[in-house]
Amino acid sequence: METKNIMIVGVGGQGSLLASKLLGQLLLSQGWDVKVSEVHGMSQRGGSVVTYVRYGDKVYSPVIDKGEADFIVSFEQLEAARWLSYLKPEGQIVTSTQQMDPMPVVIGAASYPENLIEKMRAAGVKVDALDCLSLAREAGSVKAVNIVLMGRLSHYFDLPEEAWMAALESVVPPKFLELNKKAFALGRNA
Amino acid sequence: MKRLMLGNAAAARGLYEAGCAVASSYPGTPSTEITEEAAKFEEIYCEWAPNEKVAMETAFGASLAGKRSFCGMKHVGLNVAADPLFTVSYTGVNAGMVIAVADDPGMHSSQNEQDSRHYAEAAKIPMLEPSDSAEALAFAKLAYELSEQFDTPVLYKMCTRVAHSQSAVETSPRADIPVRPYEKNIAKYVMMPGNAIRRHPVVEERTRKLVAWAETAEINRLESGQDRSVGIVTSSTCYQYVKEVCGDRYPVLKLGMIWPMPEEKLRAFAASVEKLVVVEELDPFIENHCRVLGLKPVGKELFPLLGEFSQNLVAEKLGFAPKAIRSLDETVPGRPPVMCAGCPHRGMFYTLAKNKVTVLGDIGCYTLGAVAPLSAIEMTLCMGASISGLHGFNKALGAQSEQKTVAVIGDSTFMHSGMTGLANIAYNQSNSTVIILDNSITGMTGHQQNPTTGYNIKGDPAGKIDLEALCRAMGFNRVRVVDPYDLAACDRAVKEELAAAEPSVIISRRPCALLKYVKHKAPLRVNTAKCVGCKSCMRVGCPAISIKEGKARVDETLCVGCGVCSQLCRVDAFESTGKEG
Q1: Which terminus has fewer CB within 10 Å in chain A: N or C?
Q2: Which CATH number among 3.40.50.970, 1.10.260.40, 3.60.70.12, 3.40.190.80 corresponds to the domain B2-178+185-216?
């Protein structure tokens, strides 16, 4: 199989590392070659962060380049729009509807663009937008947005739910497993 | 069984399997996780040293004593450790010694984009360069074999994309490596001129032997391709981009040892293709070697000297068709990193900005004090330069600058390179004011312990250096501690210490808000009936506060209730949500 590409984008501290770990485990368990590329260090401090997950028969580059992503999974609207150029023409965006003002907006040097999801759709981009923050809160913690998003992403994969659950169990500490299973189900069934 | 492993974790696994017994490092992105992961193995003694020079000397000591040793650092850390590096090349080792250095092309988390491969050539130490996690593991083991076979430390070069990418590895058990008994050998280990003069030819002879090894080494791998119009020499992550783009089309010579490079192998490869292309990030290191051999490579005339490469860049330069790219007709505002909500550095930077103090900064999370709206830091160079720079600044301008200029430096950075600068102030007496931003952890690299925290790399109790006592012992009479959440106290401390007629140290102390043990107050909210929309609270640049419909609003998922914003509110609009986090 030709290499498939999933980008996870968001704001440093939102939990994209755990989501990428889950995907890495899942895809490796399906027998694919997998590479996952993460961001550490300064960019993590509230900056725009991106994680690349690639899988296929043989994966070389650890990063995803412009025009290559099959999926962009986004924790935040502006970040989905920021990384749009990385999406394949037929690619799919799965995004939380959450909006977080970046510092240039906070200090009034820039404004947060309005109706980003509608604008992306108008440009012909496939966007699946979901209020993941509310669903995470419903599951028991606002920190579970990452798993709600994974639940939503699972829609687009022809993989048994048990495989996702096994991957979830391998990356989440036991005491948070129930909460995360609920978050996953809320995302998957939304 | 194959499993996914971060490049740095795979390197640590390689240390473990190779029987490494002692590891001493200083954290630095993207090298940190090698030592953090190594510390998870009971069999390896691991520690955070105060700086890279100390780490390398510690690793050398362990090697001398007869156990396989390791030290790891980021590219700029190797500058700090360059002093022992150049001479450990002469002494050689007893048991194997591996020095990991992680470059950061693209400067994801660094102050420069230096190419550490030059150190290998300059210090005449072999350097291995893995291109994925499987190689990270295998090359770490090979490095120890080479180290002992050729009596040399071995440099092990990472870059961000190899260090911080996960790929599949297969693991093996740890090798049982016997201790190599230490033997007194003054001629080999005491590098005074008479001995060093006899060691230098040994080094040159070793390099000749290593070149011969490089000619046949499996890690300098020739991969065939049908189209011989182009032949590519590459290494590290660039190899992955080349294979991604070209597949098996062009022949590729992949170098796993980047110094010394083979000669005959390169000549033969060049002779077998029409055009020799070198694909390497940053400096033309392989390319220049090819030129020395009399070859005519195409390198930096085609590829950039700056930043990271990617598959699209390699494709474009090699003439492959570009991919279709979508875009949105919309200006997307940038999202630079910011100080976290509740960051203890914020209150001190607000105070310094308010008092229009010139701030010479240092390396750490607090470098973000240079970012708007605080825009407080005016200089950042390298570890420790805030304090020594301040001394020079004040010596140059005297009373003109002494009462309105400070240095800010974190606790870990102070231990790394700040103490010697402070000694210079105490000794050569500039009336300088130094602020130690003590957040009780090494923050930016992801929470590593340091000599001031009282805990070691495993989180167990350890020696704890008392900053106040240390500064007093150096001769500072004025040493005071403030809580940076208390803006009035910060303001008093800064004003009084700048006005004082002698050098002083302010320790701005509060643990990093992200530390797990830190208990936070309930998040705040804004009483919109009281808020007059004056935006006073916006001056601290907290990511949890924004203005919506003319009023301040607090993002309760980010706010940790530090209360710095509420001290700026003239109408008392901030109130507690009562929901303890």
Answers
A1: N
A2: 3.40.50.970
Note the CATH number of domain B221-317. Answer: 3.40.50.920
Residues B331/B138, Cβ–Cβ less than 8 Å: no
Instruction: Using a CB–CB cutoff of 8 Å, tell me whether A113 touches chain B.
Output: yes
Instruction: Give start-end residues of each CATH 3.40.50.920 domain in chain B.
Output: 221-317
- Shortest CB distance from B328 goes to which of A36, A68, A119? A119
| Fold of the domain spanning B345-509 | Rossmann fold (3.40.50)
Does A28 reach chain B within 8 Å, measured CB to CB? yes
What SS3 class is residue B77? helix
- The structure's pTM equals 0.96
- Buried b / exposed e over A165-177, threshold 16 CB at 10 Å, is bebbeebbeeeee
Report the run of H or E that residue A82 belongs to, with start and end: helix A77-82
Q: Is the dihedral of CA B117, B121, B124, B127 positive or negative?
A: positive
Measure A39 CA to nearest chain B CA, in Å.
Answer: 7
> Could you tell me if A40 lies within 8 Å of chain B, comparing CB atoms?
yes
Over chain B (581 residues), what is each successive 10-residue block's mean pLDDT?
A: 94 98 97 98 98 98 98 98 98 98 95 97 98 98 98 98 97 97 98 98 98 98 97 98 97 98 98 98 98 98 98 97 89 91 97 98 95 95 98 97 97 98 97 97 93 97 98 98 98 98 98 94 96 95 91 92 97 89 50
CB–CB of B153/B99 below 8 Å? yes
CB-based contact B340 A47, cutoff 8 Å: no
Contacts of A62 in chain B (CB under 8 A): 132, 161-162, 165, 167, 237, 240
Residue B333 contacts A where some CB pair is shorter than 8 Å: yes
Question: Which residue on chain B is closest to A46 by alpha carbon?
Answer: B337
Q: What is the pLDDT of residues B479-538, one digit of tens each?
A: 999 999 999 999 999 999 999 999 999 999 999 999 999 999 999 999 999 999 999 999
Delimiting residues of CATH 3.40.50.970 domain(s) in chain B: 2-178+185-216, 345-509
* A and B: number of Cβ contacts within 8 A: 190
Q: Where in chain B is the domain with CATH 3.30.70.20?
A: 524-576
Q: In what order do the strands lie in the sheet with B97-103?
A: B45-48, B22-25, B69-74, B97-103, B154-159, B127-128, B257-259
Sheet holding A126-130, edge to edge: A126-130, A87-96, A69-74, A4-11, A48-56, A33-37, B165-169, B3-6
User: Considering chain A, what is the average pLDDT of its residues?
Assistant: 94
pLDDT digits (tens, 9 = 90+) for A133-148: 999 999 999 899 999 9
Residues 59-78 in A contacting B (C-alpha not used; CB under 8 Å): 59-63, 65-68, 78
Nearest to B310 among A63, A107, A133 (CB): A63
Cβ neighbours, 10 Å, residue A146:
27
Within 8 A of B6 by CB-CB distance, chain A residues are: 38
Q: Are B158 and B130 in contact (CB under 8 A)?
A: yes
Sheet holding B252-254, edge to edge: B221-223, B252-254, B230-234, B275-279
| Architecture of the domain spanning B524-576 | 2-Layer Sandwich (3.30)
Residue B169: per-residue pLDDT: 97
